[in-house]
Amino acid sequence: MCGIVGYIGKKEASSILLHGLKLLEYRGYDSSGMAVYLEHKKAISVRKLSGKVKDLENLLEKKPLCGVVGIAHTRWATHGVPNQVNAHPHLDCHSNIAVVHNGIIENYEELKKQLIKEGHRFVSQTDTEVIAHLIEKFYTANVTLEEALRQAIKKLKGAFAIAALSQKEPYLLVGARFQSPLVLGLGQEENFLASDIPAILDYTKQVIFLQENEMVVLGKDKIKITDFEGKIITREPTFIEWNIEEAQKQGFKHFMLKEIHEQPAILNKILNYRIKDAGIVFEELKIKEEELLKIQDIIIVACGTAYHAGLVGKYILEYFCKIPVYVDVSSEFRYRQPIVDEKTLVIAISQSGETADTLASVRASRTLGTKVLAICNVLGSTLTRESDGVIYTQAGPEISVASTKAYTAQLFILYLFALHLAALRKTLKTHEIKDYLDILKTIPQKQNFILAGAEIIKDIAKKYAHFGSFLYLGRNVNYPSALEGALKLKEISYVPAEGYAAGEMKHGPIALIDEYRAVVCIAVESDIYDKMVSNIQEIKSRAGKIIAIASEGDKKIKELISQVIYIPKIKDIFSPLLVALPLQLLAYYIAVKRNCDIDQPRNLAKSVTVE
Predict the structure, then answer these.
(1) DSSP-assigned beta bridge partners for residue 102
(2) What's the whole-number average pLDDT of the chain?
(3) Is 606 a catalytic residue?
(4) What residues have CB less than 8 Å from 542, skipping those under 6 apart?
(5) Burial class (CB in 10 A: 0-12, 13-18, 19+), 398
(6) Whole-angstrom distance, CA of residue 535 vs CA of residue 499
(7) Predicted pLDDT at 243
(8) Less packed terminus of the chain by CB within 10 Å, N or C?
(9) Does 174 have pLDDT greater than 90?
(10) What are the sequence ranges of the domains in the chain?
(11) pLDDT (mean) for 279-289
(12) Mean pLDDT value of segment 60-82
């Protein structure tokens, strides 16, 4: 959840570290800090405080750190409240060693008790501080920093990405990873360490993804990777093709708004990359066609927004492929005893590819003999390496904590995969697949139509922003859309919101309806449109304040409701790709009206890398 940056080279470290933290702030922003080795003092100096990275930047202007090697951190609090003492970096007893950490050390309490007995002095409530003291314990006269870290991590239980600096070996950085991401950047007489690529992309496009149970030692002109036992590992770097401009706001007020508007271009990109003369192309899929043909059922595992994409995926796969599909929240799947075998395909969906619960679900599935297909956005992430096959969503860097473009990219990939699987299973005829692909090709243009009408949604949001709670209702393939719409509103505006299957309204939620609750009804053209209209009439009779999302040209809905957001007509199975945008924009404009911190909502982080 936290963000780590490290630098060693010839340039001023603090400016590079600060730049990296700004680009990692989506991973956490409760507090931030930096440690730099000061050559003139022969010592490590630390600046840290609670609050966001801009507060650290102001502190550094008043009290600069001048050196060519350092580490930095932006925190999402797990152990210990967000304050200056608990902010990273953490030091050992004599301030010789500085450590930053992403993850959770599960056995930190017993380690801390033992270290206190041995005379170590702790100042914070964090689990991370034990790492600094463990390194200190093993860092004796004849032991290197690398070996001291190696001995320390053997005592740790839990998940960690670690970067450490010592004034005894000041021109080295050491790092280690276990179930938390860490990326190395290769430069000219400089090297980098980071939790994610954007932090270092302004300086290098050559990266190495540290893998599980691996350590690294960085000098300004060398990198040594080993496993936890010290065995040397050789790995070629990966060239990153996208650039940092893709992760900038480009004139939009917020990253979220920019990313909402990027969706048509991203879907066009997917279409151009995936649809060839030979049909639908998944070069990185790797799971053989004969293996896919043996599949008798599918389980989709995911968290949050990706889980909602998976729920839509259930409707899609069952509709096109005539195969049973089950969807599970990863945090539940990993702790039950799923009935799966070699004839089950597990599809794991994650924007980051580092979601802890989803990774645990994948590992549990593979021990039971299943094939795992990852749908992921981040090249080289843990999920992509631990799955049998991968389909990249190619959404580019998503910076806003609330996911938008990654969601519709996940949906789009699920549609394409379902059509690919339907072709293999012969559940659709060739001309039917072509017709469906033709519909998908119209989606970007239809999304642009919705975006062009954003002012209408903005006006509605202003009228409804004062409501204290919302109910979102949808049916069939748009029931998950209702869940996702409610989640978006909760995430960025802190307004209580609940998504519900509209047919279930009479089984409880109707008791909530009154003039103080806003109800968003997804009533697009479909076989169950009349059922949705009945729900709307029930809400109206109880004085509920309704916003409807309806298909273009629907005059009947306008007779019932004054606040209608129209979207282009489309075959209903594909409608979630369009419905998503007005739901995202409605949440965005309500949050703007309520003066919320949209890109960095409280208590949240982009990538949930801890349980």
Answers:
(1) 161
(2) 90
(3) yes
(4) 510, 513, 514
(5) buried
(6) 14
(7) 66
(8) C
(9) yes
(10) 3-241, 250-443, 453-593
(11) 87
(12) 85
pLDDT tens digits, residue range 367-382?
A: 888 999 999 988 778 8
CA-to-CA separations, 89 to 85, 102, 129, 214, 579, in angstroms, rounded: 10, 11, 9, 21, 44
The pLDDT score that the predictor gives to residue 242 is 66
Angle between helices 129-138 and 108-117 (to 10 degrees): 50
At 435-469, the pLDDT tens digits run 999 999 999 999 999 999 999 999 999 999 999 89
Question: What CATH code is assigned to 250-443?
Answer: 3.40.50.10490
| Residue 321 annotated to the active site | no
Sheet holding 564-567, edge to edge: 497-501, 469-474, 517-523, 545-551, 564-567
Q: Going by C-beta distance under 8 Å and a sequence separation of 6 or more, which residues neighbour residue 239?
A: 205, 206
> How far is the CA of 550 from the CAs of 67, 374, 480, 575, in angstroms?
59, 33, 16, 10
Task: Please report how many Cα atoms fall inside a 13 Å half-sphere around the Cα of residue 519, on the Cβ side.
Answer: 30
Q: Which of 458, 453, 500 is nearest to 587 (CA)?
A: 458
Examine the pLDDT at 78 and tell me if it is beyond 90: no
Summarize pLDDT for 483-522 with one digit per residue, the tens.
999 999 999 999 999 999 988 877 877 777 777 788 999 9
The string of DSSP codes covering 358-378 is: HHHHHHHHHHTT-EEEEEESS
Residue 74: strand, helix, or coil: strand
| Alpha carbons 352 and 381: distance in angstroms, whole number | 7
Residue 72, SS3 per DSSP: strand
What confidence tier does 596 reach under pLDDT thresholds 50, 70, 90? very high
Catalytic option among 2, 303, 521, 596: 2
CA angle, residues 584, 381, 102, in degrees to nearest 5: 85
Q: Which residue did the predictor score with more confidence, 422 or 543?
A: 422
Same fold, 3-241 and 250-443: no
Alpha-carbon gap, residue 497 to 494, rounded angstroms: 9
Q: How far is CA 241 from CA 202, 207, 335, 581, in A?
A: 12, 11, 38, 28
Q: Do the beta carbons of residue 70 and residue 194 sit within 8 Å?
A: no
Which candidate in 137, 314, 545, 606 is catalytic? 606
Q: What's the CATH fold of domain 453-593?
A: Rossmann fold (3.40.50)
- Range from 23-32, 132-141, 307-316, 569-578 carrying the lowest mean pLDDT: 23-32
